[in-house]
Design a protein that fits this description.
Low-confidence stretches: none
Distance between the termini: 13 Å
CATH topology: Ribosomal Protein L24e, Chain: T
Order of helices and strands: EEEEHH
Number of strands: 4
Number of helices: 2
CATH superfamily: Ribosomal protein L28/L24
Oligomer: single chain
Helix content: 10-25%
Length: 78
Amino acid sequence: MARRCVLTGKRPNTANKVSHSNIKTKKRQLPNLQKKRLWWAEGERFVTLKVSTRALRTIRKNGLGAFAKSAGVDLNQY
């Protein structure tokens, strides 16, 4: 699986690591992804998703079904 949040679409970013002598080398900034088993109330079952911690906070606030619907994700696939 790719390092991508299923709900928000967050993915790795590329940036420059700058040394003291101003030499720039490429580095990857990875999102904080967690593989979580979440209860989906509308489907009355658990779904396992790879989500960012920011998405987990939004799920806790709005609910999994509402957040997935706004993100355009079909939870029947998971």
